[in-house]
Amino acid sequence: MILKHGDVGTGVENLQNRLVKAGAKLEVDGWFGDETEKAVIRFQRQQGLMVDGIAGPATLARLDPANTISPDKLLSEDDLKYAARRLGVQLAAIKAVTEVESKESGFLPSGRPVILFERHIMYRRLPDARREQLASAHPELVNQKPGGYVGGESEWRRLTRATAIDRTAGIESASWGLFQIMGFHWQHLGYASAAVFSEAMHRSEGEQLEAFVRFIKKDKALHQALKNRDWTAFAERYNGPAYARNQYDTKMAAAYDRFRAVGRIS
Q1: Taking 80 as the threshold, does the pLDDT of residue 1 lie above it?
Q2: Number of H helices, E strands in the chain
Q3: What pLDDT digit, counting tens, does each position of 59-106 carry?
Q4: For residue 231, which of 97, 56, 46 has the smallest C-alpha distance?
Q5: I want to staple 248 with a disulfide (CB 3.0 to 4.6 A). Which of 35, 115, 170, 235 is the partner?
Q6: CA distances in angstroms from 115 to 84, 92, 200, listed in the order given
């Protein structure tokens, strides 16, 4: 769930009640207006969370006493500041990219990383000698065609079966975490092995952001576009031709302006 400025209803009312219990002086009226946004920003700063004024999964989890995901796994403001320094870009810029290009959460309720297993990648990553035999025996896991997606926790059942066939190829054939970085990039991004990459993705959203930072640094044109805040060039290179239809460039531009404004709110 994501709650933001302008939203109304019981979800906002529940958010306001939790903010009040956390110490905010706020009228509980079910409307996410300026005062609720300011209360969210203050709470995020107090908790070291990404400061965006939006009550997303990380903020809601920190407000929920029943939350089972360790706070250490959640993306923090310090993680984003470190990423911005590593890339030599404004904090508002890295936040804008994170908001538009990442998933809502890097972890499932079970505490495992969000993944999506790609059977056509598994087909390509397997040794030639075994590929066709395994494709015939396990077409749901090894296939020339994409598909077979089940989503959520069920993707882990697919990955578990794939890694039983070939551990490295299985890890390489899934996209991981907040930014859905494909496992086969592990060597290019400087990880010692596919297993080490997987372990990092399990540790925290901060580590998932680290993989994304490495991905950007390895692409000079992408990195330069981010430095220049050339959202069209960045979106085209990162998202491909569909970027315009999905308005990724305009969304990042708008998010960048909003994050600069949020930075001025006390």
Answers
A1: no
A2: 14, 3
A3: 888 888 776 677 788 899 999 999 999 999 999 999 999 989 888 789
A4: 97
A5: 235
A6: 25, 27, 13
Pairing, β 181-182 against β 174-176 = antiparallel
1-67 is classed in which CATH architecture? Orthogonal Bundle (1.10)
Residue 263, pLDDT above cutoff 80 = no
Query: How many Cβ atoms from other residues are within 10 Å of residue 90's Cβ?
Result: 17
State the virtual CA torsion across 106, 140, 196, 114 in degrees, nearest 10. 10
- Which residue intervals of 126-204 are DSSP H helices? 128-137, 154-165, 167-172, 194-203
* Average of per-residue pLDDT across 115-130: 96
Q: How far apart are CA 218 and CA 215, in angstroms?
A: 5
Confidence (pTM)? 0.82
DSSP 201: H
> What is the reported pLDDT for 78?
93
What is the rounded distance in angstroms from the CA atom of residue 126 to the CA atom of residue 119? Answer: 11
Q: How many residues does the chain have?
A: 266
